[in-house]
């Protein structure tokens, strides 16, 4: 009798193995209808992993293959967990697979959302520290930016965000900025020391964002901007405005190596004296981006434009000729005081790490004639780090401009 438990165990082992094999055979009769990665942008995964994911479609279900891809995702995305969700497909005997990527609930994060060097305009950088508590996040950052606007500005930025205001579809953010401003000599010559130039600038902004549909978000709020002018005497002025943005962003995949991404947006900043503003104007911005991936090939087209009605404060005027627009030109050679009209288009082709691009655009003021400018260049990408050389296309000698930075 003392050998009975051992005998029973030995008899159970082949039965369990048979049951497991039967379950595997049942699963393998299903065909994979679609595969999706949630919680992370697939476009940021390396090409090898994307090919493995796309290779599951229209093939028989394989648990071993799914486990292998889960391990690849886990290694490629440190600090995140990867789960798998399987659901019934639209067709009989088909299933849908979703790889769910989740962030670890880290309470502290240090990031550099901007770090760029442009040989004509120098360094620009921002470093942010973020503390997360549940659905709330608190961010403090320091920055020095001579790339984005007409002015070079530096200082501190503080931001609070609640990513779930009663529902996952609504978020609320409050931001405070305090900057000190430096002006290029070319801008001073054009402005001729009028009150438009300021020494310091502060911004208080409250914005709510609502997810209207998949990929479609609407943001609305108010911005209270104060700045201390330099001439003829130091005093404070305000540019208080209603702000709103409508954005659409979808990644569209199809069977095979092709993948598309469509982004489009409209933004409005309407400064009004009813909010105590010294300025009254409306600033409209439009953008459209299309990206096509086919294997190791990537083709992207970016179109942006804007128009200002009324007289805007200097920080709201449009510029071209920096690390992302009309690359190769110096913004102070094009429009040292910015403009109230602009249009820009960029076309990029990338094969693995190598990239070539062509930019064209114009920035001007109402009542003036627009002058189109062109530039071209090439470079390579190592992960998020890019090294580019750009040439302005014009008569005479072309001087190359070198650009290096993150997320370009």
The CATH homologous superfamily of the largest domain is named membrane protein fhac: a member of the omp85/tpsb transporter family
Strand content: over 45%
* Structural category: mainly beta
> Which shape, going by the Cα principal axes?
globular
Strand tally: 19
Low-confidence stretches: 1-26
Distance between the termini: 75 Å
The major sheet is characterized as: 16 strands, antiparallel, barrel
Percentage of residues in helical conformation? 10-25%
State the helix count.
Answer: 5
Total domain units: 2
Seen as an oligomer or otherwise, the chain set is single chain
Architecture blueprint of SSEs:
Layout: H1 4-27, E1 31-38, H2 47-54, H3 63-76, E2 80-88, E3 94-103, E4 108-118, E5 122-133, E6 136-145, E7 152-162, E8 170-182, H4 185-191, E9 198-213, E10 216-229, E11 235-253, E12 258-271, E13 281-294, E14 297-310, H5 331-334, E15 341-351, E16 354-364, E17 373-382, E18 385-393, E19 401-406
Parallel strand pairs: 1-3
Antiparallel strand pairs: 2-3, 4-5, 4-19, 5-6, 6-7, 7-8, 8-9, 9-10, 10-11, 11-12, 12-13, 13-14, 14-15, 15-16, 16-17, 17-18, 18-19
């Amino acid at each position: 009798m003392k050998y009975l438990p051992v005998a029973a165990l030995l008899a159970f082992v082949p039965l369990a193995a048979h049951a497991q094999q039967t379950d595997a055979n049942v699963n393998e009769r299903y065909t994979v209808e679609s595969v999706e990665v949630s919680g992370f942008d697939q476009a940021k995964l390396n090409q090898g992993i994307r090919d493995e994911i796309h290779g599951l479609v229209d093939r028989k279900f394989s648990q071993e293959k799914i486990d292998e891809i889960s391990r690849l995702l886990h290694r490629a995305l440190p600090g995140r967990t990867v789960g798998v969700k399987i659901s019934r497909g639209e067709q009989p005997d088909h299933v849908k697979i979703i790889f769910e990527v989740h962030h670890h609930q880290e309470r502290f994060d240090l990031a550099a959302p901007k770090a760029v060097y442009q040989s004509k305009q120098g360094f620009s950088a921002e470093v942010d520290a973020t503390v997360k508590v549940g659905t709330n996040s608190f961010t403090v950052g320091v920055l020095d930016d001579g790339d984005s606007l007409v002015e070079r500005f530096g200082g501190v930025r503080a931001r609070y965000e609640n990513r779930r205001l009663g529902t996952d579809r609504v978020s609320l953010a409050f931001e405070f900025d305090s900057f000190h401003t430096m002006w290029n000599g070319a801008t001073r010559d054009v402005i001729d020391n009028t009150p438009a130039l300021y020494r310091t600038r502060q911004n208080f902004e409250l914005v709510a964002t609502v997810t209207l549909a998949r990929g479609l978000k609407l943001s609305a709020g108010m911005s209270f901007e104060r700045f201390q002018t330099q001439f003829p005497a130091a005093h404070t002025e305000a540019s208080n405005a209603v702000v709103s943005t409508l954005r659409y962003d979808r990644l569209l995949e199809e069977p095979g190596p092709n993948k598309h991404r469509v982004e489009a947006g409209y933004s409005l900043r309407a400064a009004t004296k009813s909010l105590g503003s010294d300025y009254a104007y409306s600033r409209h911005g439009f953008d459209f981006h299309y990206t096509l991936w086919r294997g190791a090939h990537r083709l992207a087209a970016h179109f942006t434009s804007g128009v200002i009605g009324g007289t805007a404060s200097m920080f709201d005027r449009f510029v071209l000729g920096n690390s992302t627009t009309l690359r190769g030109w110096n913004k102070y050679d094009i429009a040292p005081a910015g403009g109230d009209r602009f249009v820009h288009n960029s076309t990029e082709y990338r094969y693995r790490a190598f990239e070539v691009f062509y930019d064209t655009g114009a920035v001007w003021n109402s009542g003036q004639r627009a002058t189109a400018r062109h530039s071209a260049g090439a470079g390579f990408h190592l992960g998020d780090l890019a090294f580019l050389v750009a040439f302005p296309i014009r008569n005479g000698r072309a001087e190359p401009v070198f650009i290096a930075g993150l997320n370009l």
